[in-house]
Amino acid sequence: MAHRLVLDYGQRPRAVQVPDGARVLRAPTPEAAPPPLGDLLTSALDRPVAAAPLEEQAAGARRVLVVISDATRGEPRDALVRAVLARMSDRAAVDVAIATGTHGPADPGALGVGDDLWRRVRSVVNHDGARTADLVALGTTRRGTPVEIHRAVVEADLVVATGCIIPHYFAGYGAGIKALFPGLGGSASVRVNHRLKEEPGARAGVVDGNPCREDLEEVAEMLPRPPFILNAVLDDDGAARAAVAGEVRAAFRAGAAACEPLYRVRAAPSRAVVVSGKHPVTASLYQASKLVAAAAPLLAPGGTVVVAAECGEGTGPLDVVNRGIYEIGLRPRLPAEHRVVLVSSLPDEVVRQTYCEPAPSVEAALAGAPEPPLVLPRAGSLLCEAAA
Length: 388
Hints:
With 388 residues, this protein is α/β, with parallel strands linked by helices. The chain has 2 domains: 2-27 and 264-386, LarA, C-terminal domain (2-enoyl-CoA Hydratase, Chain A, domain 1, Alpha-Beta Complex); 37-262, Rossmann fold, CATH 3.40.50. 26% of the residues lie in helices and 27% in strands. It contains 12 helices and 20 strands. The chain has helices at residues 37-46, 54-59, 77-85, 115-120, 151-155, 187-194, 211-222, 250-259, 285-295, 318-330, 348-351, 362-366, and strands at residues 2-7, 14-19, 23-24, 63-69, 93-99, 123-126, 135-140, 146-150, 158-165, 167-168, 172-173, 228-234, 240-247, 264-267, 270-275, 299-308, 338-343, 357-359, 374-376, 383-386. The strands form 6 sheets. A 6-stranded parallel beta sheet has the order 3-19-15-16-17-18. Strand 5 (93-99), helix 4 (115-120) and strand 6 (123-126) form a beta-alpha-beta unit. Helix 1 (37-46) packs parallel to helix 3 and helix 9 (285-295) runs parallel beside helix 10. The longest helix has 13 residues, at 318-330. The radius of gyration is 21 Å and the shape is globular. 52% of the residues are buried. The mean pLDDT is 95.
């Protein structure tokens, strides 16, 4: 016997049949309706953590840089930018930088920012981490990361980094300093930092004692002026449940503390684990690999992870996917004996060039599984713990 389950898969959901006895694990989203986002952002800016109010800092700034995420993050960028600009004088020279990290330049029209806001700002910095002419060298961190960052960050009198706090598989959580580095960092230097994902403390939900996060936060010490952050805390449905503003470390930690109970789950491991997630995490294997990392604590030795991700944008760079992500980031988290099977729109011959095996459907991938699967419909956001 089997029953029907609808998974996030790509641009559209996908219905699958899973065996009776399958366990479905979801984030513990609160039942209460989320507060209005505008109210949360206003309250956070009214009570900044360990920093002077934003309007006070902006009063003496001739050049202000507001940093937003690219389209690989599902974030309320319009609301974040509006909240920041509401604290600025109309005479302030404001630039917006799109934090693309190693992803390459973004399409500003795909970011959901209103045309009136684009007209309000002086210029838009569409970051390209491979364009070395735009980068400024700041030095080397104690862990050996050579920091190069877009010159717009160094030249601004005030930098306001926006973003949303959700779990991140090796930096602990997204947002905070990540908007600036890796967001506006040089691709080569960012990849040096990302090697720290091999270390035991580089795990989802870990902030203090996380070598990757601590290395990133050291970048704030290298900047001419301390950055200010405005971060929303999102639940698994993408609704804001809290917001924080202020100093990049202290405010971020307050937000991470609010985020943790929204995503912490415990379950007994299984030898068959199905993972999927909301677009854009299922847009490419580069992004969908985060789903495997999240589920790793729940995969029993000898087990199989089935990744249901459309991958309409392809695999991503194969050397990065296979070496930088799988060999360095995923294999150390997974049991010594394991399989990763990808259900996608990609041709089988393309999938076979990656660390995954292809399968035409979730049902086919689960055929012959030794036990009913554990299904994580939105795996990438979960903080998973193995229960006895």
